[in-house]
Amino acid sequence: MTNRAAPGRYDLHTHSNVSDGTTSPAEIAAEAKEVGLSGFALTDHDTTDGWEEARQAAAHHGLEFLPGIELTTSYGPKSVHLLVYGPEEHYEPLQAQLDWLRNSRLERASEMIRRLSIDYTLDWDMLLEELQTGKVQSAGRPHLADVLVEAGYFRDRSHAFETALSTTSPYYLPASYFDTLEAIRLVRDGGGFPVLAHPAAFRMKAPISRELMRTFARAGLGGVEIRHPENRGDWITPIHDEANRLGLIMTGASDYHGAGKPNRLGEESTPQETLDIIRSLVATPR
Ligand code: AMP
Ligand code: ZN
Ligand code: FE
Ligand code: FE
What we know:
alpha/beta; 10 helices; 8 strands; binds zinc ion; binds fe (iii) ion
């Protein structure tokens, strides 16, 4: 018998091998069933390509599915990840922006490979091979990490992220420059609900400030990911207070990446009533 948790728990932040997770959308659905979740959102980086597979697999397992995207944005020099729930899938301006973001990711990967190849033996073909083993639509540092691990330079993705691929390494480049406020407005225009991802992640130089939260909220931010395995306890308290003041919805999620990261599916989650609110506000609620 599989283990059953309390009903009405949803993991609203997961990545499949359509971006930089290691399991397929259908496998995430099967695992969500196994760990006793009532449903999940698929939030691959800058793509909606996994939605249909996840939707069908969720239905097969009797689970609820919420379509999502994790959008790569920046506010000045600050990298800001936005979880976007339920936008209209074929809203042209959003899909055009996703195309642009995925292209920027490829160009960025190419330049990072050029920089890395000064000190490591690796090339573009090795990355292409890595991307083509699955159905990856969105290239990122985790794929560069896989190439470096396979070449024997590092133990695993985390080891590569701590060293050659860290944001302070000379090989690093940001994934793109897509203004956070523009992104929030675009998402709202497309019927989506934007939630600020991991606002107090320990890898950031500093947490998202209250002032920035107010700026994002004025542009249309709808929620904040208060419970995330990487949020620092001492950093999240003021963010929680400010979210309350601003009337933002609060979510919890694992940021599952399969075997690519230690985060376990369902280790943080969102209750039924919060999912219901999000669903009532979006163009594509399932
Ligand atoms: P990128 O967007 O290409 O800069 O890559 C960032 C992605 O890599 C995010 O989705 C992170 O969750 C993921 N990531 C960050 N740290 C690690 C790690 N230590 N191991 C595996 N993946 C990581
Ligand atoms: Zn990721
Ligand atoms: Fe993120
Ligand atoms: Fe993520």
